[in-house]
Amino acid sequence: MKKWLPLVAVCTGTFMLLIDVTIVNVALPDMALDLGTSFGQLQWVVDVYALALAALVLGAGSLADLYGRRRIYLTGLVLFAVASLSCGLAPGAELLIVARAVQGIGGAAMLATTIALINTSYEGRERGTAFGVWGAVVGAAAALGPILGGALSELSWRWIFFVNLPISVLAVVLTVLVVREARQEGAPRPDLVGIALFTLGAGGVVFGLVRATSDGWGRPVAWAPLAAGLLVLAGWVVIELRREAPMLDVRLFRSRSFTGIMLGALLLNAAAFSNSLFLSLWLQSVLGLSPLQGGLVFIPLSLLSFSIAAGAGRWLQTFPPRLVVGSGLVVIGIGSFLLALVDGGSSWTVLVPGLAVLGIGVGVANPSLASAALDTVPRERSGMASGAVNTARQLGFALGVAVLGSIFTAQTASTLRAGGAADADATASALSGGQAGQLVGQSPPEARGQLTELFATAYADGLRDVFLACGVAGVLGGLLVFWLVRSAAPGAEQRRAPKAPAPQAEPAVR
Q1: What 3-state DSSP class applies to 163?
Q2: Distance CA 148, CA 21 (A)
Q3: Are 46 and 25 in contact (CB under 8 A)?
Q4: 3-class secondary-structure state, position 422
Q5: What is the 8-class DSSP label of residue 272?
Q6: Of 487, 503, 489, 480, whose CA–CA distance to 259 is shortest?
Q7: Dihedral sign (CA 302, 304, 308, 310)
Q8: Which of 138, 115, 122 is nearest to 22 (CA)?
Q9: 319: three-class secondary structure by DSSP
Q10: pLDDT score of 230 more than 50
Q11: 402 and 213 in contact (C-beta within 8 Å)?
Q12: Helices (H), 317-435
């Protein structure tokens, strides 16, 4: 049993960092009420964590190769724990957002090293078993986030962060005692310029999209950061092409298959998970469910995605990646279209069929993405491909939340305007921030019934457009994968066996 303790140490940190991507969503209405946040601030509480993961995971992997995987993993754990404490104690939205960014930095350090630590801790069949357990933990984290978030929020939203402290202590102690250090001999220096440019560029794009939600697309505060971010990303591509050891070899995108898998990973997280912010706010602020009840609504998604990934994941990996990932994305799109049946008179039960179909799609596509990414590149680029797919996932989530915010507020404001609301834009912003109850309570008693109905209709209309956009993203992602992804790259065939998603010859997988 002692031989599996390194796996326990790695999986503990993995579970914690991934569950914090979604555990926050169910607690957002309570955060908004307690801290008086705007919708833009709520978006940043969710987005800044995913953005930090996306921007830094490749760079953190380079640091781990050079200075040691266990050292970087432990650094990430400690940073994550300190940031979690700061999140739980945050007196206002600004400090909470900053602490979430630091949490994301720690999470990136952990995420970049988990596969490499497993790869160097086990051999042969034990390695295949370890990766199977790790994959199940990844699936469980994504599935259980909303449910655990709802349960902990019954105590206080702050407990979704405080609960990380004892888990972090356990992970640190286990890692120090049972995980051995490993590094890559002759590893190149980290591409600090590339890391900085990618972070600035992606951050500028997301910032511009979030500001467009609250300020409109006609304001320079929205389009200027977006344009600047795209310009910086273009510069990043030019510089990466010229570097000897880039954080990401952008020449890999010359491969249709690699490009298809990266687009699939980005659109999967955008379509399947970025709508949960808006859904949680609707369940609690409009339908009046408690945080726990709101979290339990996600059970069809959680149960089916986890059970399919755990029960059929190995079998699914015997099929071509384009078929598995592409089909899963199309099913995610269909599930989102079913969710779009929501209207102003709907209860939470209208979501059950769509969430169930969504869970099937996630369970089919998600486990195959990592191995599919490895199959599209030569063996010597395996670690880079593994980090790139993690980057694409988290960037898809961050961009999805930002884009869907604009779609949601535009449609909500349109419905409010048609319903005669005095200040439709300000009311839409307040609704999207989870303040429906406060707005109704502040209105004259004789108008409350009509306002309640109008708010329910407006919110449902915005939510419907969000789900329609997710449906389009899912189907489009599936079609792109079907079209772009072809056979495995030279030297990648040996990795088609599902027992080990990381190649033995590349200990620096991240």
Answers
A1: coil
A2: 12
A3: yes
A4: coil
A5: H
A6: 480
A7: positive
A8: 138
A9: coil
A10: yes
A11: yes
A12: 321-339, 352-365, 369-375, 382-418, 424-432
Dist CA 336 CA 139 (whole Å): 20
Q: What is the mean pLDDT of the chain?
A: 85
| 81: nearest Cα among 59, 62, 106, 53 | 106
Task: Outline where 216-251 has alpha helix (H).
Answer: 220-242
Q: Label residue 217 exposed, middle or buried (CB < 10 Å: 0-12, 13-18, 19+).
A: middle
**Alpha carbon distance 508, 503 (integer Å):** 10
List all residues 6 or more positions away from 82 whose beta carbon is below 8 Å from its beta carbon.
102, 106
DSSP, residue by residue, 77-125: HHHHHHHHHHHHH-SSHHHHHHHHHHHHHHHHHHHTTHHHHHHHH--HH
Joined together, the tokens standing for residue 190 give 């980290």
Nearest by Cα to 459 from 424, 419, 415: 415
- Amino acid symbol at 252: L
> Which DSSP state fits 412?
H
The Cα–Cα gap between 372 and 393 comes to 14
Map residue 507 onto helix, strand or coil.
coil
- The 10s digit of each residue's pLDDT in 59-118 is 888 888 888 889 999 999 999 999 999 999 999 999 999 999 999 999 999 988 887 888
Residues 503 and 496: their CA atoms lie apart, in Å, by 10
Question: What span, in angstroms and rounded, lies between the C-alpha atoms of 373 and 485?
Answer: 10
Which residue in the block uniquely carries the two structure tokens 């030279």?
A: 490
Work out the pLDDT band at 378, boundaries 50, 70, 90: confident
Interacting residues of 364 by C-beta distance below 8 A, sequence separation 6+? 308, 312, 316, 324, 327, 328, 331
Check if the beta carbon of residue 53 is closer than 8 Å to that of residue 104: yes
SS (H, E, C) 479-493: HHHHHHCCCCCCCCH
